[in-house]
Give the backbone structure.
Amino acid sequence: MESSFIVTGLLNAISPYNILFIVLGTTLGLVVGALPGLSATMALALLLPLTFQLPPETGLCMMAALYLAAMYGGSIAAIILRTPGTPAAAATVMDGFPMGARGEAGRALGISLTASLVGGVFSGIALLTAAPFLGRLVLLFGPVELFAIAVLGITMIGTLSKGSSIKGLLSGAIGLLLSTVGMDSTSGTARFTFDNINLYSGIPFTVALIGLFSIPQAIALAEQSRGVQQVANQIRDRVLPHMSEFLKLLPNIIRSSAIGIVTGVIPGTGGDTASWFAYNEAKRFAKDKSGFGKGEPAGIAAPEAANNAVVGGALIPTIALGIPGSSTTAVLLGGLMVHGILPGPTLLTEHGAITYTLIWAVILANIPLFIIGLGMTRLCIYVTLVPKMVVALAIVVLSIIGALAINNNMFDVWLMLGFGALGYVFDRAKIPTAPLVIGLVLGALLDSSLAQSLLIGYGSWDVFLKSPIAAVLLLIALLSILQATPFFRMFVRKQAVC
């Protein structure tokens, strides 16, 4: 069965129709990544409404290609303007901009593109290799285990968020609360609808995503537009690196790719974490560390290989368990939800063909990324110079159009703007948005699996302790919550002193 899914997924991915959308997604990803301040998550949220009229596998192919290309595209602004196009490209600034400043911007971008290609291919192969094993593993999961997985996913994404773990858990709890709006799946009772008929079917996931990620970004760009325009490096040299230089960097690229895959598997981390980790390791392994920060090629190759490798790594828990490895993969799951496919371990069994199409798209998208990247890199210098106010206005307009296109209902537009205001408040208060999104995604699974589990256990909560898998997962979730509390950390420090 697994082999048939793998073949079907490959045939779907290489169909001319899907290849066309992979190329389109790659082009959009490069442009979005090159625009300073934008992110792959925001672009995917805006793209979601456009996938309604597409087959699920086609929409996912385009979104996967955009995700992968945006990770490389972020390095264009980092090298040209000293401003990371995406958060994952922050480490690339350290050596990318100094190399560009001395007249080797093309070389820096070529190293970035080549490292991104290797990192993306490695992560795709890792995902394809892990999927069959995970497909057999998830057959052991029933409603009881699914409930434990949902609890673990929310607690991990909350406690692993940057900054305060308490704020992360609070964000996840708000997401869970919002996921309960609408008709109860078991009793059919209306919950938190305030007698508004528009909320009886729940909060539209796509509307929430567009608001949370797009509007705060537009406001931030508008606030930054008052600043002085950055002076850009010019591309006057060769972009494609020489083979001798590539072979010299290859061990570093492979090591950084492995770091990106492993980091991506851990929920709550992302391309920025993997990039800094890989950069530090590249510096640690270097014989001469004096060149780092002054235009060292290894300082560009390491973070770029790592942040593209994160794509496949983050999709491993997303596909196998329905736990998004990052907010970006949560949006990808949203692409499944708009087509009526519920996230969870059943993705590999009930929807194997679509899932393997996504996996193959992650691998195949690297080819147009490299080809289009070579052709568009010189043109993207003009993209980086687009005024931020223009970009901000374009984001707001696209957000309104996207929210309205879902149900042709103005209520969705106001709801989107409300979530935009919530996202802006979260940004100001330094509360992570990712746990809220994960709460929205996993809330339906948590709700339905809890009801089913209690029916299986005849209303007894002991049913979660009778399953070894569920008991272990819930124990890990409890420990992750405890370690986030200041009392627990104080207790650990006291024990360490003793």
About this structure: Residues 191 and 470 are 28 Å apart (CA to CA). The chain has a mean pLDDT of 79.
